[in-house]
Design goal:
By secondary structure, the protein is mainly alpha-helical. The chain is 73% helix and 2% strand. It is built from 10 helices and 2 strands; from the N terminus they run H-H-H-H-H-E-E-H-H-H-H-H. It has a two-stranded antiparallel sheet. The longest helix has 27 residues. 42% of the residues are buried.
Length: 203
């Protein structure tokens, strides 16, 4: 659900826009949390900030490749997916590494009253994304760029900046999804989120 929110922004850009790197970002985020926190709750918040920054950085790189280098989104994000996957396996040496803090497990499997925390978080994220797309000038620009990028450029929009920011949103949401998925599974795995790039596009 969460990773589909970021994917939605990318798909709205048109021109075959999609992000195939989201699953690699999710898995890398899960591995980073386990390796950097070593199960310590006090390290969870700063590590989450690192992971979210990592997701944004990946999105910025994707966006720059698509806009500044003119690479098709399918090829650009596929290449970044493979690079991230290679770096992840280099870091873990192909084996699970580290443990998750108890607080992360609560984010993934805990509950706030009758509802699981993961569903509450997804509902909040969906509501925020809906407001951004439907009620803000930025959301209007996303639709305009996706509808006709040339017209948007002639209207004075910084189309490259908008596209890059959209991929950054996708990277952020992929990292956030990886955090919650790691908390839900409770096991550090190099293949967490495998197949989510296709599932998020379909959703």
């Amino acid at each position: 659900g969460m990773v589909s929110i970021g994917q939605t922004f990318v798909i709205l850009t048109g021109r075959g826009g999609l992000d195939l790197s989201v699953a690699s970002v999710m898995a890398s985020t899960a591995v980073m949390i386990a390796g950097l926190t070593q199960g310590k709750d006090e390290l969870l918040f700063p590590v989450i900030c690192i992971c979210l920054t990592f997701g944004i950085f990946v999105g910025l790189v994707n966006g720059a490749l698509v806009t500044k280098r003119g690479i098709q989104p399918f090829i650009a994000t596929l290449g970044i997916m493979i690079i991230i996957q290679g770096l992840r396996f280099l870091y873990t040496r192909g084996a699970p590494k580290g443990t998750y803090p108890a607080l992360l497990r609560f984010l993934g499997t805990g509950s706030g009253g009758p509802l699981p925390t993961s569903r509450i978080s997804r509902a909040v994220a969906t509501m925020i994304a809906g407001i951004v797309l439907e009620k803000t000038s930025y959301g209007r620009k996303v639709y305009d760029v996706g509808g006709n990028i040339n017209t948007a450029a002639l209207s004075g929009y910084n189309t490259d900046g908008i596209l890059i920011s959209i991929y950054a949103i996708s990277g952020f949401m992929a990292a956030l999804s990886g955090i919650f998925l790691a908390g839900w599974l409770g096991v550090s795995d190099n293949w967490i989120g495998k197949g989510y790039e296709v599932d998020s596009i379909a959703a």
